[in-house]
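User: My collaborator sent over this chain with a note saying "see what the structure looks like." That's all I know about it. Can you take a look?
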Amino acid sequence: MTQVNIPFPLSSSPGSSGHESAGRLINCYAEPLGKDIGAQKGYAPPQVVWRKSPGLSLFGASAFTGFRGGMLVSSSLYAAWNNRASIFTSGGVETTLTGTLNGTEKVFWARNNKTPTPDVVCCAPATGLFAVSTSAVSFLSAWGAPNSIAFMDSYFIATYGDGTLQASDQNATTFNTLNKTTAQSKPGGLTRSVPFNGQLFALGPNFGEVYSNTANPTGFPLSRSYVLQRGLLSPYAIAGHDDGFASALIWVADDFSVVQANGTPNPLKISPPDLDRLIAGVTDKTTLEASVYISQGHPKWVLSCPAFTWEFDLGSQKWNERASYGAARWRAIGGISAFGKWIAGDTTAGQLIYVNPNAFDEIGSPLAFTLESGPVANFPNRTRVARADFNFVTGVGQAEGQDPIGTDPSVGISWSDNGGISWSQEFVRKLGRQAEPQRITMLRTGMTGTQGRRWRLRVSDPVYVAFLGASQDTQLRR
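Assistant: Without extra context I'll predict from the sequence alone. Here is the result:
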């Protein structure tokens, strides 16, 4: 018998087909462990732990449906819904605003530095610009039909499909028609602008322009610094500039890759080919939405559409997938830092939810930690697997948890010997009641295929999950 480690991935790598997969992380992520443990004879400490992704909890129910985006201003959380707007208190209590916020498409929010009460505006790309107070919504017809709004250095800045950037008067919703410029480096107009690190990124479908404040005494207050060689594929597929995050500006580019601003005309590509292929395969690119959140020291950039959700961990520089129960994507959209939480809209209901590392489900629905290995291979030879051991943190049941899934949790283990085309039945092993350790072992699981064996681990119970690696004992069969 030979003992070999089972290769679980640090970053999700599903491949174009199961045979190509190097493993998947769904609702879980890899975190490196400390390396300061001195080497001891016969002891090799784990170098990585795979943790269950944070769950979701209810922040506040709404009278409306179809979350379109939001923003925190002072102690009020503004939220846009289908044709309406509302504000939430820190306790999740909603107040409906009078007036209509026309449309159902996602919107962009901005506020200025006017004192004592800032102006708050909201841009619905298909309709135009709205002024939003703590009591009402009103249409700002003078602005015409901008497709996005941003705020930088005391100015609201609107973008238009013809490439125009229009600046407001200082800390006001009025504007001088002469205070504008036009992005002219390439044809195609502008799609969106966002402020980041003291600069304005104005992005079109196949290019971008970066502006800095040069305190121009007349005309447009910003001057162009350089031209970006990558455009923005979807107006909603950019994030990282958000209040409370601002770690990195990341967007989906016109070549179907995910790129990160790096201060040069050529932003850094950070997406793997697997994700590039998924993006290219999305029929309606406007359904691609980016958002962010931070949980337990992990800043995450999230890309979702109806077909998938992928997350990029800015700390580890690795990717993992998310999927809510019964869906192909994660249900949270539009992360907002507010009241000490990361609050989002819910694609399944008219409500606001928040990322909660102490929740191991999603508002009562299962959150399935799913980890697939790469192949344990000895191509083209087959092997007999006499034993496999899985190093989970055990004894994680909660005496006060939901019985039996919270008090006596389990892990489902299955395997594939044909490159992931089909999987065995799922065998259940206990993770242990509270403070009761368990050994998690599979015995006599048969012969592998010529492509080796892949393992799948799944924990749907609402408990803490941490996995530290696995090994299998194999015997060569020719």
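A starting point for your reply to your collaborator: The mean pLDDT is 94.
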